[in-house]
Amino acid sequence: MVLGSWSHFLSHLLPKMAILAQKFARQQGFNAQYLRRYRLWPRPDASFGARELRRMQDYALQFVVFFAEVVSVWRGSPLRDRERERLTAFAAMLCLYDDFFDQPHRSEAEIWAFIAQPEQFRARNAREAVALALWQRLKADLPHPAAFYPAFQEFHQAQVASQAQAGGHHLPRAQIQKISFDKGGQALVLSWLLLDHARLLQEQAAVYQLGAWFQILDDIVDVAKDHAEGIATLVTTAPTLEAVQEDLEAQTRVAFSALQGLPYPAERLRQARDFSWSSAQVARPTCNFSNPNKPYLLSNPMPSPLTCWPGMSAAGKTSGTV
User: Fold this and answer.
1) Phi and psi dihedrals of 119, rounded to 5?
2) Which one in 111, 175, 274, 286 has a CA-CA gap of 20 to 30 Å to 213?
3) Cβ contacts of residue 20 below 8 Å, gap of 6+?
4) pLDDT tens for residues 185-234?
């Protein structure tokens, strides 16, 4: 799952959303403590520096604040410290693992061996060594290993398939959608499997759809970079801005319908929806296809949460129970 840095957008978002700001600040403090050992890596080289550390922290903020905290809302129980540790290690590792696919000297089999047989994996630089240390740290505390490894294999295959997105504007949009949704969906399924009590298949399906939704939002945030690099996403290959909004609205309905169907109290599900929606406001910028050097602006690409929440009318009046 290729995630962009959302720091710029968060700087505008946080003053308006106190709860999100509080959770964001808490995870920032946790990142500083948990990832401290990697700031002073004993064998540094050019592959691992301030940029990689910043990305590790960004990934952890996104996975913990924008996903795990949402799950804690609908479950009605706060995120536990041990769950936060696992998710922080996973997110930090994942951003470095993602880089493996950009390295020509690593085969697909070698990259999978990093996950399946880390004790036999030989790091070739500091970045790989840090990724390995994080994965071994996490591997020792997997709460659901029997489910985690098959799920990671699915995510790995999605990452392999995503290599076709580089220069892939000839790909059918249905194929691009599947690649994108599998990357985002499976990444959140893996995160979900790091939580305690991750057993409900209906919850897993909802988590996948939320991940697919967030992947569209992430592609909106990253549209300038992806456009410049020739990466084919649902956003960069959209024929019009309206098509971007249609894709987003469609997946919003799917994700929120899946959330609505979970066997939790309706009020908690509403709160989880609202928290997800608040997080999503960071993705407001979208694409101006005519000139990649200009700001990517659209007045309101996000659909109204009321029109995308089943049982709610556009006027904001409940037409049924949630």
Assistant:
1) -65, -20
2) 111
3) 13, 14, 65, 275, 278, 279
4) 999 999 999 999 867 888 999 999 999 999 998 898 888 889 889 999 99
Query: Which residue type sits at 301?
Result: P
Both tokens of 279, joined, read 């997080």
Top pLDDT among 227 and 81 is at: 81
Structural domains of the chain in order of their starting residue, each with its CATH number: 7-283 (1.10.600.10)
Give the angle 170-209-223 at the CA atoms, nearest 5°: 45
Question: What average pLDDT score do residues 79-87 get?
Answer: 96
41 phi and psi angles, rounded to 5 deg: -60, 130
pTM: 0.83
Torsion sign (Cα): 4, 202, 88, 109: negative
User: Tokens 């990689």 identify what position?
Assistant: 52
The two counts, helices (H) then strands (E), for the chain are 14, 0
